[in-house]
Amino acid sequence: MSTLKLNKSPAPTEQKREKPVRPLSPELRDRSKAPPVKKERAAAEPQARDAQAQPARKEKAVRDKKPRAFDGKPEQKERRSPSANDGRRQYNREQQRPRMAKTDDRPPRPSAPAPAAIDQQPRLSKVMADRGLCSRREADDWIVNGWVKVNGEIIETLGTRIDPAAEIIISAYAKEHQAETVTILLHKPVGYVSGQAEDGYEPAVVLVNPDNQWPEDSSGIHFKRGHLRGLAPAGRLDIDSTGLLVLTQDGRVARKLIGDDSSVEKEYLVRVEGQLSANGLALLNHGLSLDGVQLKPAKVSWQNEDQLRFVLREGRKRQIRRMCELVGLHVVGLKRIRIGSINLGKLPPGQWRYLGEHERF
Q1: SS3 state at 108
Q2: How would DSSP label each residue in 75-103?
Q3: Is there a contact between 190 and 242 (Cβ–Cβ < 8 Å)?
Q4: Catalytic residue list
Q5: How many angstroms separate the Cα of 279 from the Cα of each of 4, 46, 163, 299, 328?
Q6: Which DSSP state fits 239?
Q7: What's the confidence (pLDDT) of residue 103?
Q8: In terms of Cα–Cα distance, which of 329, 338, 317, 339 is closest to 238?
Q9: What is the residue-wise DSSP string for 256-305?
């Protein structure tokens, strides 16, 4: 039996891994000396030294450069020429650019009055009465009929409040209606009341009828039943007094005679009894108070030994009788003979006449 001997040879991979050993030069073998520097490394060392030195030179240049003086204006970049802006308009920053108007520069828009301001405005009827156009009662009638314009707008609602300076235009219908109103002058006798009937006494207006019209009435107005509609007394004259009583349909007349701001004089002849106090006449002229209210100055003088002449600018209830009682006198007769510039004249008691167009209080 024969045996085979295998020849063990190195594997190809092991042969490739082996590297040839290069013999060292005698210089390398001597470790007592520094190894020689290669030419490439020696050439790179000067460049590295130059690179380290370059920042130092740059820093020195910046340090040596003088700082630019500040002139108070920000540094501006170089601007492009207008041709480079494609025709767009350029503004110099040193010049003020045009700006749009702010809201504050615009005129304020008219705003509606606040509710509180509207509530403080006067009523239309009061403004009309204050201007002397008519009475408040007439104003209400005209407003309901649509005869009143305020600033070009027809007002038909009662109680409307307006600006006191507003323009008020009255329709011709209202003026025609007002032209038809009458004012009657009556010589009221004792036993009639001025206003509504009371305690069995008749009102003085019942005397206004064709039978009692004064024959010497020169007004040229003919009696109509419509003249009694809305006829009201403009002033008091108590049941025990006689004289001139004004009954009118014209609210302007009523306001002038009995309005709060009325200053029309009323003249009376007063028959008295009793002993006048020492300073009684001076107190009658000025110095008396009724119901805690100081009376306006009056003109009081003796007409004869038992009759006084009173001229008043107000008309409180039973004013003359109460004034006389304060100075020790008792009134036994009272007659009103004048209101403003209208005199009772020869008008007999119980008769009446119209106020003429030429007559004014």
Answers
A1: coil
A2: --PPPPPGGGGTT-----TTSPPP-PPPG
A3: yes
A4: 238
A5: 183, 138, 50, 15, 11
A6: T
A7: 53
A8: 317
A9: HHHSTT----EEEEEEEEE---TTHHHHHHTT-EETTEEPPP-EEEEEET
88-112 exposure pattern, b = at least 16 Cβ within 10 A, e = fewer: eeeeeeeeeeeeeeeeeeeeeeeee
pLDDT in tens, the chain (361 residues): 555 555 555 555 555 555 555 666 666 555 555 666 555 555 556 565 655 555 555 555 555 555 565 555 555 555 555 555 555 555 555 556 556 555 555 666 656 555 556 678 999 998 998 888 887 878 888 898 899 999 999 999 998 999 999 999 999 888 777 777 899 999 999 999 998 877 788 999 999 999 999 999 999 999 988 899 889 999 989 999 999 999 999 888 988 898 878 889 999 999 999 999 889 999 999 999 999 999 999 999 999 999 999 999 998 889 999 999 999 999 999 999 999 999 999 999 999 999 998 998 9
Q: How many whole angstroms separate alpha carbon 120 and alpha carbon 130? A: 16
| Nearest Cα residue to 255 out of 141, 134, 354, 357 | 134
- Tokens read off for 169: 């235009």
| CA count, 13 A, side-chain hemisphere, 260 | 3
Q: Are 84 and 124 in contact (CB under 8 A)?
A: no
Nearest Cα neighbor of 190 from 242, 245, 243 is 242
CA distance 222 to 213: 10
Q: Where are the alpha helices (DSSP H) in the chain?
A: 12-17, 26-29, 39-64, 115-120, 124-130, 136-144, 172-179, 251-258, 280-285, 319-326
Pairing label, strands 168-170, 289-290: unpaired
How many CB atoms are located within 10 Å of the residue 182 CB?
Answer: 20
> Which phi and psi angles does 332 have, rounded to 5°?
-115, -10
Tokens 């030195």, residue? 53
Q: Residue with structure tokens 């070009």?
A: 152
